[in-house]
Amino acid sequence: MSVKKVLASAPAKIILFGEHSVVYGKPAIAAAIDLRTYVRAEFNDSGRIKIEAHDIRTPGLIVSFSEDSIYFESDYGKAAEVLSYVREAINLVMEEADRNAGVTVSITSQIPVGAGLGSSAAVAVATIGAVSRLLGLELSNEEVGKLGHRVELLVQGASSGIDPTVSAIGGFIHYQKGKFDHLPFMELPIVVGYTGSSGSTKELVAMVRRNYEEMPDVIEPILESMGRVVEKAREIIVSDYDRGVKFPLLGRLMNINHGLLDALGVSTKKLSELVYAAKTAGALGAKITGAGGGGCMYALAPEKQSEVATAITIAGGTPMITRISREGLRIEEVLP
Ligand code: PMV
């Protein structure tokens, strides 16, 4: 059957433990969440690549653009950044398929851009999923995740690959140096708090790198400690402790991980305020998720999700009560 149109979707993610240290080969734990980016790919007769984006969420606004012109301008920089992930994703798939064709890609996203929820990885993964299927390339979700990592390396320069991997695979994963395994699925009573501003993953990763190169003897033990936090968290997650034991232990590890991220210099006043507001409202633990410098934090708050959400709002953040998504990349529709 020759395919004319494909709709694919890929989820956002949160890093539960181990952001930044994962770039240095330490392990990390991440989960897909139930916010998605949808990408429709179809052939066109112009022989060119066209990109249309609808509802790309940047802080507080929705941007629409087509190719290079932004129709409803909010933050050109961020919208343009999304374009570069989509472009590289299409180029890479065409290279893999050894084929050039006129393709129109339309994007709709529920994931805020630049919030540390993996919007770039989700758009790259959904684009690779849709375009590869359109061109008749059979790729497993794992292979799509690997191509997503290559897209991140091309656009960002440095990336551990955790974001595209979890977006492609879905569920709950332990990740280290390009390899992942699934952790047992469990519902986590979390609240994500969005600061409303975004940090640049590329700049934050570069800032940590500079510190590491200038003071390796100081920074390396912090990264090492983060790796140990992750391994301890993994032990607790796979243990047969019940939730009443697991959650308080995980909460304590989150607080330690947050302190270590703060020591690396990636927290902000706003992130700290949301973290403390959540803990004061009864969360067992709270930490940055993603690169920091703005973006999001998350709190573990069994039986206290609505109190913590209110506290985050009062502290000036936007709360999101999300669920873990078992599914990663999904082909929604294939039209002949
Ligand atoms: O893009 P974010 O904000 O989810 O951060 C990615 C996580 C980092 O560890 C900071 C970078 C990486 O490539 O793993």
Structure description:
There is one protein chain. The chain is α+β, with helices and mostly antiparallel strands. It folds into 2 domains: 179 residues, Ribosomal Protein S5, domain 2 (2-Layer Sandwich); 133 residues, GHMP kinase, C-terminal domain (Alpha-Beta Plaits), CATH 3.30.70. Helices cover 43% and strands 26% of the residues. The strands form 2 sheets. Strands 1, 2, 3, 4, 5, 6, 7, 8 and 13 form a 9-stranded mixed sheet that branches. It has a 4-stranded antiparallel sheet with strand order 10-11-9-12. A hairpin with a 2-residue loop joins strand 4 and strand 5. Helix 2 packs across helix 4 and helix 6 runs antiparallel to helix 7. The N and C termini lie close together (7 Å). About 5% of the residues have low confidence. Bound molecules: (3R)-3-hydroxy-3-methyl-5-(phosphonooxy)pentanoic acid (PMV). (3R)-3-hydroxy-3-methyl-5-(phosphonooxy)pentanoic acid binds next to helix 4 and helix 5.
N-to-C series of helices and strands: EEEEEHEHHHEEEHHHHEEHEE
C-alpha termini separation: 7 Å
**Mean pLDDT, as a whole number?**
90
Report Rg: 19 Å
Q: State the CATH architecture of the largest domain.
A: 2-Layer Sandwich
Residue windows where pLDDT falls under 50 for at least 5 positions: 59-74
> Helix content range of the residues, please?
40-55%
Largest sheet: 9 strands, mixed
